Amino acid sequence: MIRFLVCSVAMFVLGTGTAVAHVTAHTPDSPPEKGGYGTVVLRVPNEETVATTRIEVTIPPAHGITTARTRPLTGWIPTVRRGPGGVVTAVEWTARPGSELAGGDAHYEDFGLTMGPLPSDVDTLVLPTTQFLANGGTVAWNDQPDRPAPVVTLTEPSGAGHHGERAASAANVPWIAVASLVGLSVVLAVGGVLLFRRREIS
């Protein structure tokens, strides 16, 4: 019985070990805000026996992202692809000869980019990713159950209310200053009149 359980656990671990090595999206800074700009790092493993020579990340054009800047990565050439209106549709990294991502579960690479403005009408940004292999094959991470697309969680804009309150307060400052000056002028004028009349009486 014990031997059976050990074998079962071993088979479960071996069966799920490769599934753990998904392409994932990380946000090294604070979580990106809706409507703002954010930095995303895609961690790409290579579960295949051959090298990965190119990575392509699809940016859904419906989100209207117009800026994408890649983080320098030694041995890889980045390319930002755009559609009508300058909307970013994809970001690619192509390996120089000798810099390919080697095959095997022990190998991975991080691909970083900063982009925006991020959509304000969704809670998550899905980034379908494709690995191009040295033998001409591809591995698509596009929301299939066994190869899900990397997802970035977007947060609500922070401090929107505070900024509005500060702006309103700043707008009120000139009026407060004017009112104070007017009040001071009235006090001085009344005081001057009373002093003048007092001198006339004496």
From TrEMBL:
It comes from the Bacteria. Pfam families: DUF1775. Residues 22-154 form the YncI copper-binding domain. The chain crosses the membrane at residues 175-196. Keywords: Membrane, Signal, Transmembrane, Transmembrane helix. Residues 1-21 form the signal peptide. This is Uncharacterized protein YcnI. It comes from Lentzea albidocapillata.
